[in-house]
């Protein structure tokens, strides 16, 4: 329900309560794919497949031989209508997985395409489980950031891609805008 302070729902006005409730909720969730997807673990293969299909619009996979060799990526310019088929290619060194959980997206989507993936996740227990879930791929994780996305300050220029899947809806409206600006710059 909107409040007198404009269109901001009342439950989002108390930042401490909003994020505190989220911390409490995620502490109660099992560190499994099913837990990460709110009981919809069965959709993970479709979710990953469609995410790969989306990314293929920006990746040059012609020289891809195995999952340990990153692909080339077209530079994505925001809010442009130009044809990106001629945009300069860049090598994707590091991806950032926002709201990474146990690493479902990192393992199945990002690591096959990038040299290194950094993971930001507010639940440190999920990041610990990610080390098990990722298996031998955990050596390709650059950094584990055990903090909420709302508090994360990315290193400028570090990332070839910043992936936010199933996480932005957990931010307050104001911090959604703020994190998009921080991640873009």
Q: Strand order of the main beta sheet, please?
A: 8-7-6-9
**What count of domains describes the coordinates?**
1
On the 0 to 100 scale, the average pLDDT is: 81
Major sheet details:
4 strands, parallel
Shape: globular
The helix fraction, in percent, is 25-40%
Q: Can you tell me the residue ranges where pLDDT is under 50 for at least 5 consecutive residues?
A: 74-82
CATH architecture assignment name? 3-Layer(aba) Sandwich
According to CATH, the homologous superfamily is: Vaccinia Virus protein VP39
Q: What name is given to the CATH topology?
A: Rossmann fold
- How far apart the termini lie comes to 32 Å
Percent strand equals 15-25%
CATH class identity: Alpha Beta
Number of helices: 7
Gyration radius (Cα, Å) is: 17 Å
Structural class: alpha/beta
Order of helices and strands: EEHHHHEEEEHEHEEH
Total strands: 9
